[in-house]
Every structure is written in structure tokens, then in C-alpha cells.
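Appendix B. Extra example for self-study. Work through it before the problem class; the solution is given directly after the inputs so you can check yourself.
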Amino acid sequence: MVITAPILMDTLPSAPTIRPATAPAPAATAPAGQAAPAAETLIDIDHVDFFYGQSQALHDVSLQIEDKKVTAFIGPSGCGKSTLLRCLNRMNDLIDGTRVAKGSIKIRGVDIHQADVDVIELRKRVGMVFQKSNPFPKSIYENITFGLRLQGVTNKARLDEVVEKSLRGAALWDEVKDRLNASGLGLSGGQQQRLCIARAIAVEPEVILMDEPCSALDPVATAKVEELIQELRTRFTIVIVTHNMQQAARCSDKTAFFYMGKLIEYADTRNIFTNPANAQTEAYVSGRFG
Amino acid sequence: MPATHHVFRAQLTSARRREGFIFFLFGAATYFVLLCGAVVIGTIVVRGAGTVFQARAPFINTTFFTEAPESLHVFQYQGRKMELGDAAFRTFEAAHPDVAKGKSDSYVYSAGGIFPCIVGTVLLVVGSMAIALTLGVCAAIYLNEYARDGTFIRFVRLAILNLAGVPSIVFGLFGFGIFVIFFGWNVSLLAGWFTLAFMVLPVIITASEESLKAVPKGFREGSLALGATKWQTIIKNVLPYALPGILTSSILGIARVAGETAPIMFTAAYVVRDKLPWQVDKFSDFFFQGVMALPYHIYVVSSKIPQNEYTERVQYGTAFVFLLIVALIATASIVLRNRLRNRYKW
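Solution. C-alpha cells for the complete assembly:
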């Protein structure tokens, strides 16, 4: 797979998208949470309040995430962006005492907190890549096939095919094709993170959630993951949480800025970084706080 | 004496002197403990070697390992001092009828070997560890992965820790009351297995829980995010990595299970038994038979029979073999653990 020239050194205002913008850009002055709901809305987050025990982490958050686009969540630490991301595949269920107290999150019109929703099925459709790359201490091959084997796929030819396809999809195939049976932990940090991405796309999800996927990577590895995001955007809806504003500017179509558990502004990435409607957003993206 | 006086020149300050003294004290404590261990093991090895090894080929006293205990007959025959085990003595008696007229002393358990005790101890260890690991790992998985932390679970943990401090004789009496009498299992392997298992359970549960805790959260989250159920996650992506740690704790458990006398003296151990454990009429009888065991045998030969030079041989020999067996089982578990550890390294 040929990788296009790194976009690492791009600076803020550069256009993040490769392809032409399809939807007309919403007005730059659109108030928070009012991004035009287009027909292609995949995830509809509607007035969500979220609590860790007694402390409220999200205050009345509403936003629509569009299909086959990259949406970035930015904001200072503790602003609730990771919490919201983990709501989307209900990973917060694992933490005792968490609850969505108000509002709803709908994916393709289905409220994911509905009683009859199987969280297992939800997570098959909404994959996740974590901040700290977490390849399992198994072979590369076993890492990729883990999800499929859970679903009962045992056909060797099918598994082989998925392994190659996923690794190619994650731009890792050429680097590891000769050592598929070596441990996934023997890879470098960036390769490990791409292995995790390959593992996530192997189960063919619709959405991939990325929780600061590059925060532990060096600039070169970061560039590779960002290129990968550019390639995956045609097949998947990607939601990425990042501390790195340049990264949000480089690889996302839309950006949501959070502060203190509130959604401050949600708009096209270009607008957020060049012409933010909100003074707090402007202060943050220009580096004056956060 | 160097002419230059620089600022970093070493000086013997009181802080330095105190440090030296403290280090000496800590070192001395460590080597004192080591010395005690060496003296204990050395005594057993040196004095037991006479029983376990012999000057003639094959240099190992095979009788001691393969025969059951017998009485030793010591007598004078035609001016020579003879030492014969029960069976050999009877044959000799039949061949030389004049022996009976001579004076013969007999010493109980001082001839033959300790094969039934070895078999009994191995059976007790394997059975009780199987029970303890099964129950212990299940309980640890429940406590660490499923149970919600609350007052009740904290109380359960406290109870488990306290159980670890209960003296083994209390477990023995408990097993006697519950398994031997209430369940009517009599003095049997089964009763011994459960009694010993309950004795080591606290250690195994606590250590297993720690091992499970040590498995990084990322492995669980990664697996769940791929659409695995909690159980699939535990069985495929948590337990395999926790196994080496669990086995480490079970090695300590093995030494305790093999070594304790008190829990089995009321529940599983016989002073002497002619039949070997596999000589049973039907399969189910296997579980309901008592066995001889090494620690109990040591207890019997060193406190329940008259002491003399002949019994001393058996005492030290048995203790030596006992150490060997425990070391052997522990080594096997360590090898198994290391193989697992190499397979799942992170």
C-alpha cells in the first residue's frame, strides 16, 4: 500500500479534507449543538446529562455525528470528551455508578440505552481504539481474528482473508506479513496502535471510536495513524478524541469543542479553527488557555 | 595522605557510621535465617541419607521407596547380629527353626519402606489442590470481575483473610465434624481433600484475585469493545494471563497441603493400612478410603512408638523423602508456570 506524503507539518488553517466538501457548511455563527441535522446523521446525541456517581460529567450535550465523516472532540482535560466517546459504545457501563441521567443517544434512530439493546451487538457495530495501545499478548494473527472467533468464525480461509484485508486496511500488512505468528507486543508503539485499528476494523464495524489514539506515539507514528484515518474515512464513521488541536485540524471534517462538561461549539473543522463563533473556542484553539 | 582537601572528601560522619551498623544488622538477620534453614535441611539430609541411600548399587535404598512399613526383628544368630523385616524374618524362621529359641527384639515400623505414605500424600495433594484451585479461582473471578464492591463484598474479603489465620487443627476438627461425621464419609480421601482444600482456599482466593487484578484493564476493554461478553473476555483474555500468578500461589499451597498433619489426622490418615489406594473393590470405594500420609507417618514414628536407634532411621528417612516429594511437586508447578509465563508475556 502506497502511503501518501505525511501531512504532519501542516499548520492550523489548512483544509483537513482530501475530497470536496459535500454538505454546505453551516453558518459560522450557528449556536452550540445546532449543526444542521442532515439526512446522513448517524449518531444523534440529544440533550445528554451524564453522571459519575454524584458528579456530573456532561451537561445537556447535543450533537449529530454524520455518516462516513471524521468528527473530532477537542477540549482541555476533564472536559467530558472521552466520557461522551465512551457513551457511544456504552463502555461507561463498566464503571460502577455511571448513568445517563437525561437525554438519549440514537444510532441509526435506535436509542442505545433502550432496554432491548444488546450491548454486545452495539459494540460489534461501534468499534473502539484506545489511548494506550492494547494489543493482546497473543500473535498478530490471533489479535486480528479475536473478534471474528468470538462470533464463531472458524473457517481458516475466511480468517486468513480477513487478517490480510484488515492489516492492509490498517497499512500494516507490508510490515508484518512475514511474522503474523509473532507476538503483537513485539511491534513498535505505532505499529501496535495500527494493529489495534486493524483488530477493530476486522469485525467490520460502522463506527470507529478513537480515544486519543496518538497520545503515546512519536510524530512519525502519529503521521501514519493520521494517514490511516484519511483512508478509513471512506469506509467508516470515525469519532476521534484528541488533545492535539493540529491533529483535529488535519484529519477531521467536523470538530466539537467541549469545556467543563458542556459542548461549547460544534461546526465544520475549518470554521472552528479559522472563524470560531464562540470566544472560549477561539481562546482554546489559539492556545490562550487549556 | 592526599595533599588536596576538596569539598567532596569522604568523611566518617555519625550518619555514615549509623548506616554501616544498620546494614550490618539487616545482613546479619538475613544470613541468620538462612543459617537456620540450612541447619534444619542439612540435619535431615545428612541423617536421612543413611536410610535413603546405600553403599551397594543401585545406591538408592529401593526398598524404602517401594515397600510398606514392617516391624524390624533384631536378634543374635550364630554369633551374628541379624536385622530383618517381618516377612524376611518369617522366612528365615521357617528355614532355621532354632531361631525361635534365641532372643529376638522387634521394633514396629522400623523396617520396610514408606511407599503407601508417598502414594497417600501425592493423592491428598493432587485432590485437594484440584478442589482448592477450582473453588478458589471461581471465587476470585466472582469477587474481582463480577461482584460490585460494597460493604458485603468487603466483609466477604475480610472473612476470607481471617480464614487464612485459623489454626490447621481447627480445620481438622471442622472437617471431622462436617465431612467425617455429618456427611458420613468416614476417615477418607474425600474428607481429607475437602478439609485440606478449605485450609488453603483463603490463600488461593486472595492470590488469584491479585493475579486477576494485575492483568491490565486494556485487555478487558479491548476485548469488550470487540463485542465479547464478559465471560468470553474473562476466559479468553484475562484468565490465561492470570494463570502464572495463580500457579505461584498454588505452589505455596502445595507445600502447606503436603505438610500439614493436623487437618488429616482426623479426616484422612491411617496409622497403617495394608492395602494400597488402588486396591479397591469398586471405583467409588476409592474416594472413601483412608490413606497413609508422610507427615502423619513422621508424627507416628516419632511420638507414638518407643524411640530407639532403629525408629530414628525411619524418622529421618521419611522426613528426607518428604522434603524431596514436596520439592518435586513444587518444581513441576514452577516449570508449568514458567511455560505459561513465556507463552503470555506482556
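Self-check: The first strand of chain A starts at residue 41 and ends at 52. If your reasoning did not lead you there, revisit section 3.
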